[in-house]
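Chain and conformation:
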Amino acid sequence: MARLKEKYLTQVKPALKDRFKIGNDHAVPRLEKIVINMGVNGAVENKNRVESAAKDLAIIAGQRPTVRKAKKAISGFKLREGMPIGCAVTLRHQRMWEFADRLFSIVLPRIRDFRGVKDKLDGRGNYTLGLSEQSVFPEIEFDKIDAVQGMDITFVTSAPDDEQGYALLKELGMPFMIRETKGKKA
């Protein structure tokens, strides 16, 4: 069993159940999936960029991503319908827990001048984190990077609101920024 899943079952779930006074075990907020999305810059001019980004994403996620294609033609961007413009992968179960554990404990602390991630959720208990480059992952060899590529990582939870989603992610180990209010730390 993944280390983070074990932590969720033994520590986080009971803590959330007590904090929000939830009677049913199945109503306790849980992590449902993690979606990693890479919109590839320059994919229109260079078709190999999407393949390179998909290769890097497969190494990071541990599963093969799907290539995303343009839904509409936009002449200003020289984009035609059906052209590959990015790639994405959805992680569930074992891979989701292992990726989240690596992200919280290894990847995010490696970011230069890292002080935590913003604590703004989407209103439904889900959280999206943006990374500016793939080289922060230790699996990616810096010398073999064709182009620096950013990505969005979305944590989809079963939480009904932001308060429970924030509590779930905080308990799991998401390094949220500490807010300062009027000279005092919150």
In short: The domain at 3-42+53-66+86-178 is CATH 3.30.1440.10 (50s Ribosomal Protein L5; Chain: A,). The beta strands are 31-39, 66-69, 84-91, 127-131, 151-157, 180-181, 184-185. Residues 93-110 form the longest helix (18 residues). The CA atoms of residues 54 and 156 lie 22 Å apart.
